[in-house]
Design a protein that fits this description.
Number of strands: 3
CATH architecture: Orthogonal Bundle
CATH class: Mainly Alpha
Oligomer: single chain
Order of helices and strands: HHEHHEEH
Strand order of the largest sheet: 1-3-2
CATH topology: Arc Repressor Mutant, subunit A
CATH superfamily: Winged helix-like DNA-binding domain superfamily/Winged helix DNA-binding domain
Shape: elongated
Length: 110
């Protein structure tokens, strides 16, 4: 089964919000329930749910419901897409900077 394509704009949008970044940071420690995420953030369960929905849609978080508890954990797909995007840009800029360095290293003609 083919994995869905991650929209890098959605990943950046998801990470552009400080509350969502705080959720991602918390989930980087270990999986958490929605209620344990809401407590330290001082926001409602509904608000956490909305943030989690966007994080899920961007491929950064996955949630699983067992009984009455919804547990959240990090999902690799969004981070992999982000890493690929950064690496693609890094390669381009490294080549450009290498060419600039070569040009600057050439002796000047009088």
């Amino acid at each position: 089964m083919e994995k869905p394509q991650i929209d890098i704009d959605r990943v950046f949008h998801a990470l552009g919000d400080p509350t969502r970044r705080a959720i991602v940071e918390k989930l980087s420690e270990r999986p958490h329930s929605v209620s344990s995420l809401a407590g330290p953030l001082n926001i409602t369960l509904t608000a956490v749910g909305q943030h989690l929905q966007l994080l899920e849609e961007s491929g950064l978080v996955r949630t699983e419901k067992t009984g009455r508890v919804r547990t959240c954990s990090l999902e690799a797909a969004g981070f992999s897409a982000l890493e690929r995007w950064i690496q693609d840009r890094r390669s381009t800029w490294e080549r450009r900077l290498d060419r600039l360095g070569d040009l600057l290293a050439e002796p000047e003609e009088d």
